[in-house]
Each structure stands twice: as C-alpha cells, then as structure tokens.
C-alpha cells in the first residue's frame, strides 16, 4: 500500500525539515526572539503553576495565592512604567534580559527564606511581578518591531507551541522530582519536598542565564520617539483596552485556579503534572498548525472557539466540583489559553500599528497603557475571588467566580470582531 502507516512515519522527518526551513526563512531577529522565548518557556510553568502550589502548600489557604497574584500584578505595573523611562537610556534587549534574570533571582530569594510571612509573600510577589513587567513589555515591543501582520500568526503559534510543550514536560519532570525527593536521604542530608522546590528554582535560574545569552545574538531597536506617557487615546485603542481588561479578568484565574483546584480536589503536585501532561500534547500540535496555516481573517473564529471552550469548562466545574469536574476544567483551560493568545496578540499588535501611525506616538505608549488595562481586569477578577472566599466560602469562590468571569469574557468575541474590522478599515 503506497499510503501505509510505515510510509507516513518515514515521511515525518522530511515534513519536519520543511517546517525547519520555513522557520529559517523568517527574519533573523524574529528567530532569535523565538529561541529566547523558547528557553524562557521552560521557566514560565514554574512561575505560573508551582509557585501557586508552593504557596498553597506552605499557607494551606487559597486566599494567600490570590494575594500573591495581586502583588505580582502590581509589580508588573510598577516596572512597566519604569521601563518606559529606562528605554531612553538602555537597550530594549538589555532590559528584557534583566527581566529574565530578575525572575530567577526573585524565585531563589523566596524559596530560600526559611519562615515566610504575609509581608514577605507580598514583597516576593511584587519582585516576581517586577521581573515579569520587564519581560512582557519588552517582549511585546520586540515582537512588534520584528514581525508583520502576515507572519504574526506564525510567530505566536510557534511561541504558544513552545509554551504548551513546556507546560506538558516541565510539570511532569518537576512533579516526578518533588515526589521522588521527599523523605530521601542523600550525601548525609535529609531532603524534603521544600528541598525539591529549591533545586528546581536553582535550575530555573541557570535557564534564565541561557536565555539572556541567546538574546544577545539579535539586534533590536529602541523606539525613536521618547515620550510614552499619555492619557487620551484614539477611540479604536480605547476599545482595545476594554478587550485587555476582559482578558485580564480571567487571566489571574488561569495562573492560580488550576493549582488551587487540583491541590484541593484531585491530589498533590504529581497529579497536577499528570493532568497538564495528558491535555497538552494535542493542543501543542493544534496551535502550531493554526499558527502556520491560519490567515488573519481566521483570528476571530479561533478567538471565539477558545473562549467558548473555557466557558464550558467553568460551567462543568461549577456543576461538578470534584476530581472529574476539575479535570474537565483543566482540559478546557489548556485548550483555551493558547487559542485565545494566538488570536488576541496579533489583533492587539495590528491596532498598535494603526493607531501609533495615526497619532504619531511611541509604540511603547500603547504597550504600557495595555498593561494598565490588563491590571484593571486582573485586580477586579482576583478581588471578586478574595471577596467570595472571605465573605461566603472558599468552595463557593472556586465554584462560581470562574463561571462569572467566563460568562463576562464572552463579550470579548463581538468586541474583538469590531476592533479587527475597524483596524483594517483605518489602515486603508
């Protein structure tokens, strides 16, 4: 048979080589940025998943995780503003590298404090947020300057592929390490699960150094115009800020909710790793193919499918707050996040291209303002969770707050469609 299974398997290396050559056909700076982000993708699961699990284990209270997240998002805002001033004197690549290193240093500092209290937790969260502020804002700026609307689906598809694969492999490896090291005696030392967390953190710090070395191979330009702080914007950008707030509303829950739910209703870190691993493989392949072959006109469809999946997951979790309900929610969440980002970021960058040219402003002005939009949504979302957890119950908060924000998030679909339509009309 000409199309037998063995022939298809033998054809895989040739197809992979085609994809590799397509990657090499992209601009040099874009490739450097993607490789750097691939390395940092090894770090993000530790920040996003196991930091929440560590805090949950240490304090045994989900509200502390939410407080940590608010501190972290506040740190992002502080450094996003500071970064605008620093761009006048420092190269964007150096600030990006500083953010990567600072994330590793902050995690090391937090993990090695013997007796962390609430003030220390808030300081640590703010420091890790500060690192994220340098990372994300400079990443947006470099991605804006190294991509065009035509190849942004590919850029964010491949980047999401890296992040999704890391979200599969890294939790599995860390979960196995934490389970195996707990209670062991090696080299005359007694190891606990906290020792495992500290070993992971040191490895993460080494990876951040490698990411900085990778970034040094590129040549990235700073904004020509130095002014970046504005309070009045084009009507189209104001719509984008509302979309950012809606994204932020659910974003905080994507970081904390899976760890909270799994630790509470499923098991410990090993279970968390297994669920992430099972659900992530298909997502990674799907996201890469969508990024590779989907056109700009397909972004709203991708966007809508992702949000609808998330709503379904939260409803099922709310109706069945148990191990099965949590697993269904996490599966939907793993599909939702990369689908949402694959469509959202190219839409946002297209709007920045249009309105920055129209208003003759520094593109960083829009990146900074975008962070304020995200922050507003994040604080409202996490504030809702903390309020429900403290004044009703933690179980009620885990059951219903997710459903509320997912339902509100559905408003993003018609809004994104309107923004995308008007951004292309404004360009003509």
Provide a count of the helices: 15
- Give the low-confidence spans: none
What is the molecular shape?
Answer: globular
Percentage of residues in helical conformation: over 70%
| Series of secondary-structure elements, N-terminal to C-terminal | HHHHHHHEEHHHHHHHH
CATH architecture: Up-down Bundle
Q: Which structural class do the helices and strands define?
A: mainly alpha
What is the CATH topology? Growth Hormone, Chain: A
Average pLDDT: 81
Major beta sheet, specifics? Answer: 2 strands, antiparallel
Measured distance between first and last alpha carbons: 52 Å
| Total number of distinct structural domains | 1
* Count of individual beta strands: 2
The side-by-side strand order for the widest beta sheet comes to 1-2
Please describe the topology of this protein.
Elements: H1 5-24, H2 28-41, H3 44-59, H4 62-86, H5 92-111, H6 118-146, H7 152-181, E1 185-186, E2 189-190, H8 193-215, H9 235-265, H10 269-293, H11 299-319, H12 323-359, H13 363-391, H14 394-409, H15 412-427
Antiparallel strand pairs: 1-2
Helix pairs in contact: 2-7, 2-8, 3-4, 3-7, 3-9, 4-6, 4-9, 4-13, 5-6, 5-8, 7-8, 7-10, 7-12, 9-12, 9-13, 9-14, 9-15, 10-12, 11-12, 11-14, 11-15, 12-15, 13-14
Written overview of the protein:
It is a single chain. With 428 residues, the chain is mainly α. The chain has a single domain (22-217, 231-427), classed as Growth Hormone, Chain: A (Up-down Bundle), CATH 1.20.1250.20. It is 82% helix and 1% strand. The chain contains 15 helices and two strands. It has helices at 5-24, 28-41, 44-59, 62-86, 92-111, 118-146, 152-181, 193-215, 235-265, 269-293, 299-319, 323-359, 363-391, 394-409, 412-427, and strands spanning 185-186, 189-190. Strands 1-2 form a two-stranded antiparallel sheet. Helix 3 (44-59) runs antiparallel to helix 4 (62-86), helix 4 runs antiparallel to helix 9 (235-265) and helix 12 (323-359) packs parallel to helix 15 (412-427). The model has no long low-confidence stretch (mean pLDDT 81).
